[in-house]
Amino acid sequence: MSQFSKTTELMRRGTDFLGTDYAILCGAMSWVSERNLVSAISNAGGFGVIACGAMTPDLLDTEIAATKALTDKPFGVNLITMHPQLLDLIAVCAKHGVTHVVLAGGIPPKGSVEAIKEFGAKVIVFAPTLALAKKLLRSGGDALVIEGMEAGGHIGPVSTSVLAQEFLPALAEDHLVFVAGGIGRGEAIASYLEMGAVGVQLGTRFACATESIAHENFKKAFFRANARDAITSVQVDPRLPVIPVRALKNKGSEEFTAKQIEVAKMLDAGEIEMGEAQLQIEHFWAGALRRAVVDGDVESGSIMAGQSVGMLKTEEPVADIMQELMMQSEEALGGR
Ligand SMILES: Cc1cc2nc3c(=O)[nH]c(=O)nc-3n(C[C@H](O)[C@H](O)[C@H](O)COP(=O)(O)O)c2cc1C
């Protein structure tokens, strides 16, 4: 009997689906989830996911090939649905025989799910509402990730605990549901498994693992931060929409508020048109995650992090994190 038998039993449908030892996904993180972290996660028994983000098909091609050279375990590719070359990216996944494609960032455009299924890969989708989840699972989604607002990066308005209570009783029996957002320890994993989830997805907990190529400054900012430092971007003016992103507060977040006020004033004074105003807001953060992760600019870059960041204190190898999560889950289940 395995060391983690209670946990792996509850994860069975998830591990069968992913082809892994543990149903723990490391959610795709732009600039962070590249060959090194992804292969480390998969080699440690979890499921790594390459973040395609804004990559071109050629870059994705290189990244998948490089990841394959580092692991022979299953891993996935996360594609953003509004990428202008989505179908070309899917073709790259087909060329490499990628087994799982995660579609993030909105409702998959017509034909995309079909194109993925055509080469035999599984499709993992996100859904912010139960109605949309049911629709996506009916129209080809093989598994669903529900992600609460505790998570790092782009977020919805509802917490993980509420999403879990709303979605799991309705879907868990007939569908594969993974829970994400705010998970920092195995006890939380155990509780979502008991509610019917087949696995979980973590981002923040793995972002600063030893194998992560994130800049030293980015990692230090994570280890210094408390849960309350991981704040959401605030919209100042109803005319200027802001997509909420959870990141560590820094000079950039203050400047973003100031920028919105400045642009709103220019709008009031008739100095700029609405389109230009909205574009200025939208473009403020362009390249900001890259600045923080790759260049180590933690002042003006975007240090995307979830609320579980407060539980991270030091750099640890992925395999150690994975074992710790499994052990905590197992102990929690054993005590019940
Ligand atoms: C630095 C960072 C970058 C992220 N980038 C992406 C992304 O490019 N695409 C995506 O679907 N999710 C992205 N996410 C979300 C993660 O995949 C994952 O769902 C989330 O981190 C889980 O919640 P947690 O941070 O509370 O563990 C990002 C998260 C972080 C922390």
UniProtKB/TrEMBL annotation:
Under which name does UniProt file this protein?
A: 2-nitropropane dioxygenase
Keywords annotated in UniProt: Dioxygenase, Flavoprotein, FMN, Oxidoreductase
Question: Organism source for this protein?
Answer: Pontixanthobacter rizhaonensis
GO molecular function annotation = dioxygenase activity; nitronate monooxygenase activity
Which PANTHER family does the protein's record reference? 2-NITROPROPANE DIOXYGENASE, 2-NITROPROPANE DIOXYGENASE-LIKE PROTEIN
Q: What is the lineage of its organism?
A: Bacteria, Pseudomonadati, Pseudomonadota, Alphaproteobacteria, Sphingomonadales
Supply the Pfam families for this chain. Answer: NMO
Q: Which InterPro entries match?
A: Aldolase_TIM, NMO
